[in-house]
Design a protein that fits this description.
about 200 residues, alpha+beta, 8 strands, globular, Alpha-D-Glucose-1,6-Bisphosphate, Chain A, domain 4
Length: about 200
């Protein structure tokens, strides 16, 4: 009887090791899928994300810059609207809605730097429908494509400044979740479109 209990215990220990090893392996693969960092210091925040894809660099640049693609991979936006368009620059308006009652409308300038394979974005205005909602005072960042051995690395960076407010910490927690979700959806859209 005692021998059977020891055998059963060994079996469960081995099973536990296999399950834990599988979970660690899966988590490692998810982390290798893309890397990200979110920093917050007082009223300032920044988000940096990086992932690798095997894709045509011209297609990557089109997906990152062209308005038609942006409206596809910014699924979190209630609406997007092209306001003005130049040769390698345009202005776009986004409307986001959170928790059914909070709404933000913001206008951004996007500029393409072909030589550096970079798209730079800068917030021009931001307006909330309710004063309770934290106000984004400034924000800017970029997407950049860099060649690496057999693939391309896509870097995404955004930083901003938030006005002091009642829901500031809640805003940062949600911003981090939204940024990670965006990066996953953005990578999937690129793989579907360019690979």
């Amino acid at each position: 009887m005692h021998l059977n209990i020891i055998k059963i215990q060994k079996f469960y220990n081995r099973l536990l090791i296999v399950l834990l090893s599988s979970a660690i392996f899966l988590l490692a693969n998810q982390e290798n899928e893309f890397n990200f960092e979110f920093f917050q210091n007082g009223n300032y925040y920044s988000f940096r994300g990086t992932f690798h894809v095997k894709a045509d660099p011209d297609c990557l640049l089109r997906v990152i810059f062209d308005y038609e693609h942006i409206s596809q991979y910014t699924a979190g936006a209630k609406s997007t609207e092209l306001l003005r368009q130049g040769i390698d620059c345009y202005e776009i308006a986004y409307t986001y809605r959170k928790f059914l009652i909070f709404e933000n409308k913001s206008t951004w300038r996007r500029t393409l730097n072909r030589k550096e394979q970079k798209v730079i974005f800068e917030m021009m205005s931001s307006q909330n429908n309710l004063p309770l909602m934290p106000q984004l005072l400034s924000s800017s960042g970029y997407y950049q494509i860099k060649s690496e051995s057999e693939s391309y690395r896509v870097d995404y960076f955004q930083s901003g400044k938030l006005k002091d407010g009642f829901l500031k910490d809640r805003y940062y927690a949600q911003a981090k979740k939204d940024a990670i979700k965006f990066l996953k959806e953005f990578k999937q859209y690129i793989e579907t479109t360019c690979c």
